[in-house]
Write a structure and sequence with these properties.
CATH class of the largest domain: Alpha Beta
Number of domains: 2
Number of strands: 18
Shape: globular
Largest sheet: 10 strands, mixed
CATH topology of the largest domain: Dihydrodipicolinate Reductase, domain 2
Structural class: alpha/beta
Radius of gyration: 24 Å
Strand content: 15-25%
Length: 483
């Protein structure tokens, strides 16, 4: 069944001139229009501090769509842009939000009198201004009627547990919990959702996922790109807070959570995330390792070091690579180590979960432990690594790899597009709960405090490599190696 909406809505994007809006949100909205998933009556209102008129804003939106799409339907694009509006204003000035509210009332006159417009406020803004924006949304009347508003907060929610709790308090002072949507766009990716449904739909696979059969789990999220204009945000966040805290932990929880029906789904995912813990160690350096990329070459392009990227502070110790060991208290996974790594300017773009199975007895020459690769990004697919005997008297073996691509088949939408439609319908299943974000920050905070200390090593690695050599040595001390 194709997901669409006939409900009139106003999509108010705070941070409308930012990098995320241009890279992800405008192309996703255009795709929804292209696939006829939007109602006749809808409006997209950009709000930002940047001074520009509506024509300039529409040109910005059109340029971002053309940069993302291989081919653009020009007549449809022009019709889409007729729904696009812009309002400049400061985030800390209530009077600017009052002007926005008056503008919304004019734009929404086209809404059907028989139904209320849904308003969606999308906060694509730095965490430092969340509180001001939330309070002004409510005080100005932008929230509209209770129950018809969706406050969508892009991850990360805060920069640590304390700031998250402050944002949660502000949100709950203004909105009902059913109006709050904490968005991690990875949970809109079909391949990530399929992590759960591969288990749900294949009992034979689910029976293999237990500690008596598994040696360890590896979760890798590598990208060849650098900062791509996000230095202002990333230099403050780093890979641990930007990637591990949300994307990686959410994916790993999808692997370890109990299988539940739709009503218990979020609670089960939340419980799985809450069960992760740091293994006992003499020193935190035995649990986490950080790196930063230097100069190097990716393909035919020479890349500058992180320290010379535009917008990076002089002498920055921000990590662009993290390797981390986690464990879980869930009984079926008890004792199985989870080795996680994520980084920028690595050799290739790939998000992968690898499950290495136990080698219960010696097999013979050329043998290796069985493993299952679930590749979510890059050359998406599943690979089951088995082995088969080579002809001859003595037992010797060669690899037997069974694989199939995990391509999207059916109703394929960009992650921000599908999450937007689900928010309009009031579906929160694939949005984070407060408890999940709380559990993630509680796990991450002591690690962040450790790696931020000036005496904690920050290992350099060449752009285009697989990360610091110290990461490989760390894994060898664990008795294994990265795949």
């Amino acid at each position: 069944m194709e997901l669409s909406t006939s409900t009139p809505f106003s999509f108010i994007l705070f941070g409308a001139s930012g990098n995320l809006a241009k890279l992800k949100i405008y192309p996703a909205l255009y795709t929804l229009a292209l696939k006829k998933r939007l109602p006749e009556q809808y409006s997209i209102i950009g709000y930002a501090r940047t001074e520009m008129d509506e024509a300039a804003f529409r040109s910005l939106v059109a340029a971002s769509i053309r940069a993302d799409m291989i081919e653009v339907n020009e007549s449809l694009l022009q019709e889409f842009l007729s729904h696009v509006h812009y309002q400049s204003g400061q985030y800390d000035k209530l009077e600017d939000f009052t002007v926005l509210q008056e503008r919304l009332n004019v734009i929404e006159k086209a809404c059907s009198t028989s139904t209320d417009c849904v308003r969606l406020g999308y906060l694509s803004i730095p965490p430092t201004v969340f509180t001001q924006v939330i309070r002004n949304i409510c005080a100005s009347g932008v929230r509209g009627k209770a129950g018809s508003f969706r406050c969508i907060v892009e991850k990360p929610v805060g920069h640590d547990l304390q700031s998250f709790e402050a944002i949660r308090t502000t949100l709950m002072e203004c909105f009902e919990e059913k109006e709050i949507y904490l968005l991690d766009h990875y949970l809109g990716k079909e391949a990530v959702r399929n992590l759960y449904y591969l288990r749900f739909a294949n009992p034979i696979l689910e029976r293999l996922l237990k500690n008596t059969l598994i040696h360890h789990i590896e979760v890798t999220a590598s990208e060849s790109l650098g900062l791509e204009g996000r230095a202002g945000y990333f230099d403050e966040a780093g890979t641990l807070r930007d990637y591990i805290q949300s994307h990686i932990l959410a994916m790993t929880a999808m692997l370890t959570m109990r299988l539940e029906n739709e009503h218990g789904f979020r609670e089960s995912r939340q419980n799985a995330l809450e069960q992760f813990y740091l293994p006992p160690a003499v020193h935190l350096n035995d649990v986490i390792l950080q790196g930063q990329y230097g100069a190097g070459k990716i393909g035919n392009e020479h890349e500058r070091p992180y320290s010379e990227e535009e917008g990076v502070k002089e002498g920055s110790r921000t990590n662009t690579y993290i390797a981390l060991k986690l464990m879980t208290r869930i009984s079926r996974w008890e004792g199985v180590p989870f080795y996680v790594r994520a980084g920028k300017r690595l050799s290739k773009r790939e998000t992968r979960i690898t499950i290495q199975f136990q080698e219960t007895h010696p097999v013979g020459k050329g043998s290796f432990p069985n493993r299952l690769d679930i590749i979510l990004q890059g050359e998406a697919g599943m690979r089951l690594h088995l082995q088969t005997k080579i002809s001859g008297t003595e037992p010797a073996f060669r690899p037997l790899i069974m694989e199939d691509p995990l391509v999207c088949v059916g109703d394929c939408l960009p992650e921000h597009g599908i999450l937007l439609l689900e928010a309009i319908h009031g579906k929160q299943q694939w949005f984070l709960s407060f408890a999940e974000v709380h559990a993630a920050w509680r796990l991450i905070d002591p690690l962040q405090a450790h790696i931020s200390h000036p005496t904690t090593p920050l290992h350099l690695y060449s752009a285009g490599s697989n990360g610091p050599k110290e990461s490989d040595e760390w894994m060898k001390r664990e008795g294994t190696e990265w795949f």
